[in-house]
Write a structure and sequence with these properties.
503 residues, mainly alpha, Arc Repressor Mutant, subunit A, 4-stranded mixed β-sheet, two-stranded antiparallel sheet, 8 strands, extended
């Protein structure tokens, strides 16, 4: 066998996560509090940056004026653009296709008619980051809200129910009690009081037992019910806690219809309960949610989308100081240091401006897609995904994903994280038909079963056929999953219940 030498030329492409690119990505996905802290650090490190003290004198940015309120030094001179070449990346690596996106033209576009898919939002700081403190995450005490949110994501599947649940979690105090009225919540979210009450009943089953109670009596009742000890005598006892506090045993014996020994045992059981279940979890200083975007109704019936300028760090590039120190810089090391500071300052100002524009574009597109929710309420959430928004504003899906993480929008129906507006969808059975929201399909299944006759119980296969006749393409296992999420028994169980009631 003859041996031959051969030389091949191969071309490959790979993405190198340079430090500058990592910083840009983190800057985009930071919350407003994290961004403020980051900018404060840059102000301390970079002598060419200074804080803009104009404050509230700067007007708010309207939807028709998408430019951010950060002051830029980009147009100072062409030499500054040359300084940017010292950086190891540029903004195009982070804000993909940003240059092609024209925000002002989006208001006139028709709603997108693309297909829908499941959302898998991502966000947070990478573990590969040098600034990530892994030990801090291990030692961090979990708050009650975090504990309840984790259970919410596991136990409640419906997107609208999750929004209601998240709203209710936000109204739970440190002790674990619900501080709001469900009628007001229903009015705010544009849904029925029964819908909110149904979600609340599910939340009351969460750990710790007794959470979401309206008062002490209900908190104790939930804990006793969990222990299977809420008998009529005990229910009467906790309904008369004022007598327990006065140690009026004679009145308690008469009301509970038990003897003195039983009263003492029942009171001992009450002492074993936790009147403030929320205190078992760590607490943090209250950090009110500060929205990044405001949405309000315009006089012509449209929606105005505004950036919250209070969350936008205002920094300036000090050209006068740069000119002063440049004249005295004689050593090459000093000149290189000034060039690096100038490039970093210019990059930061440009990045802040671009970040604000990106948030506004994504928020405006979400508002356009979810107009029905803003007008009619939570039952009319439209199914959208990252791809739909990304294509509409001509950006990459990863950019939209980072923008929707830890960013909040204040609407007439409440303040929500941007990612909560993304819901799953069910495809249409007709060619060219519109997709259907998973929540609307779930509600349709509930209505079908509620309207069924006792002698004609609908099986899952029958429900599938009925939905397909209405233009909804759905699998039997999906119907079963939605039915179980609604706590509706199977057709066999419902048929047995109907037969027993008929007897």
């Amino acid at each position: 066998m003859a041996l031959m030498q051969r030389m091949d030329l191969r071309q490959g492409q790979s993405l190198v996560m340079t430090p500058q690119l990592q910083q840009a990505i983190k800057l985009l996905q930071m919350s407003n509090l994290e961004l403020q802290a980051y900018v404060e650090g840059e102000l301390e490190r970079n002598p060419l940056l200074e804080r803009d003290e104009r404050g509230s004198d700067v007007p708010k940015t309207d939807a028709r004026e998408p430019a951010a309120d950060t002051v830029s030094a980009l147009n100072e001179s062409t030499s500054q653009e040359d300084k940017l070449r010292t950086l190891d990346t540029d903004l195009e690596n982070v804000y993909t296709h940003e240059a092609r996106a024209d925000a002002s033209s989006r208001e006139s576009q028709a709603p997108a008619e693309s297909g829908w898919a499941s959302l898998r939002p991502t966000g947070g700081i990478s573990l590969d980051s040098d600034e990530y403190d892994f030990s801090a995450s291990l030692t961090k005490t979990q708050t009650l809200a975090e504990h309840l949110t984790g259970q919410l994501n596991l136990n409640i599947l419906a997107p609208t129910d999750r929004i209601i649940g998240q709203h209710l979690i936000g109204m739970v105090n440190e002790a674990g009690y619900l501080t709001g009225d469900i009628s007001d919540i229903a009015r705010t979210l544009g849904t029925s009081r029964e819908h909110v009450a149904r979600v609340l009943e599910t939340l009351k089953t969460f750990d710790p037992v007794g959470v979401f109670a309206a008062d002490l009596q209900e908190c104790l009742a939930l804990q006793l019910s969990e222990r299977n000890r809420l008998d009529p005598a005990m229910a009467t006892l906790i309904a008369n806690l004022n007598l327990v506090a006065r140690r009026d045993f004679a009145a308690l014996k008469s009301l509970c219809k038990v003897d003195l020994e039983d009263i003492r045992e029942m009171i001992a059981e009450l002492k074993d309960l936790n009147p403030k279940p929320g205190h078992a979890f760590g607490s943090e200083p209250v950090q009110p949610v500060v929205p990044d975007v405001y949405v309000r109704a315009a006089q012509d019936g449209s929606w105005l989308v505004e950036l919250n300028n209070d969350t936008l760090p205002r920094v300036l590039f000090n050209n006068q100081y740069l000119s002063k120190v440049s004249r005295t810089a004689s050593r090459e090391a000093d000149k290189n240091y000034l060039n690096e500071c100038q490039a970093n300052a210019t990059w930061l100002i440009k990045s802040l401006d671009q970040r604000a524009k990106t948030i506004l574009k994504v928020a405006r597109e979400i508002v356009r897609q979810q107009d029905a929710f803003l007008v009619l309420g939570v039952q009319h959430l439209r199914p959208i995904n990252l791809k739909t928004v990304a294509e509409a504003i001509e950006m990459h899906e990863s950019t939209v994903s980072r923008v929707t993480s830890n960013k909040y929008m204040a609407t007439p129906r409440g303040t929500y994280e941007l990612k909560y507006f993304f819901t799953t969808a069910i495809a249409s059975s007709t060619v060219g038909g519109d997709s259907h929201s998973a929540e609307s399909v779930r509600q349709r299944i509930k209505d079908m079963i509620a309207a069924e006759a006792p002698k004609s119980i609908l099986s899952d296969d029958t429900i599938v056929d009925n939905l397909r006749a209405e233009g909804i393409e759905i699998a039997r296992r999906t119907v079963a999953k939605y039915r179980e999420s609604l706590n509706i028994p199977s057709s066999i169980q419902r048929r047995r219940m109907a037969q027993s009631q008929a007897r």
